[in-house]
Amino acid sequence: MKVRVDPELCTACMLCTDTVPEVFEMGDDVAEVKTPNVPAEFEDAVREVAGECVADAIFVE
Ligand code: SF4
Q: Which of 8, 22, 25, 45 is exposed most, by the fewest CB atoms within 10 A?
């Protein structure tokens, strides 16, 4: 599973970075993905936070 954050949409609310810090981190202005290829143990958490992102800025595939 792959994940990315659209920097044009992210509002830097820090939900994803607080919830799954193993995968997301804050960059200068927006959240960034540390590991585009999500480790299996974090897939469920990434899917969940992608659904909760108020900006719909997290894309999984
Ligand atoms: S949850 Fe969404 S809006 Fe909030 S920091 Fe993460 S990607 Fe950005």
A: 8
Domains of the chain in sequence order: 3-60 (3.30.70.20)
* Atom number, ligand 1, closest to the C-alpha of residue 5: 7
Name the 3-class secondary structure at 31: strand
Q: Is the pTM of this model over 0.90?
A: yes
pLDDT at 51: 98
**Residues flanking ligand 1, CB < 6 Å:** 5, 10-16, 30-31, 53, 55, 57-58
Out of 3, 4, 5, give the residue to mutate to test ligand 1, the one with the largest number of ligand atoms within 8 Å of its CB. 5
